[in-house]
Specification:
Strand order of the largest sheet: 2-11-6-8
Number of domains: 1
Number of strands: 12
CATH class: Mainly Beta
CATH architecture: Distorted Sandwich
Strand content: 35-45%
Distance between the termini: 30 Å
Order of helices and strands: EEEEEEHEEEEEEHH
């Protein structure tokens, strides 16, 4: 079984656990951004993943996102498939009547890795890969070449 790999070009972008018992890892925005009132912003995270077959990841809003940042994930939960190689992004909706400004490296979402079952394969609980994280700008730039997939790096909505 291959490990789960998170790759980035900046160590500050690596997803971190808030506590040793945290289920998810906190995800930050890679640069400052603003979201006008009632609008949605696509916010880039600076991370890419290699997920072995039988694994996926989900991105949820951090519980403090609505109260501290006055934002919410526009799609509630983002699901990333094992064959996706692009940069993870967050779609953040500003539900207020004011423009929201967020500084770079703000913790906004959280990332969970999960197993899934497919009709043609069955993955058991003991078949859990380790998580590996690397800060490597060359690997980040060549990620879809190093970890090829038929789908590639097509983003949200790319499969129809």
């Amino acid at each position: 079984m291959q490990n789960i790999l998170i790759c980035t070009f900046d160590e500050k972008l690596l997803p971190t656990k808030g506590t040793p018992g945290s289920v998810c890892r906190d995800v930050v925005c890679k640069e400052a951004f603003t979201v006008p009132a009632g609008q949605i912003a696509k916010v880039w995270t600076g991370i890419k993943t290699f997920l072995p077959q039988g694994r996926g990841s989900r991105m949820y809003a951090r519980s403090s996102l609505p109260t501290k940042a006055h934002l919410m994930l526009a799609n509630s939960v983002a699901v990333f498939d094992a064959d996706f190689r692009g940069e993870y992004l967050m779609q953040l909706y500003n539900y207020t009547a004011e423009t929201v400004e967020i500084p770079a490296y703000t913790r906004l979402a959280q990332l969970e890795f999960f197993p899934y079952l497919r009709a043609e394969h069955q993955y058991w609980c003991g078949d859990v890969p380790w998580l590996e994280m690397q800060v490597d700008s060359v690997m980040y730039e060549q990620f879809d070449i190093l970890f090829p997939s038929e789908r590639g790096k097509g983003g949200i909505g790319s499969t129809g």
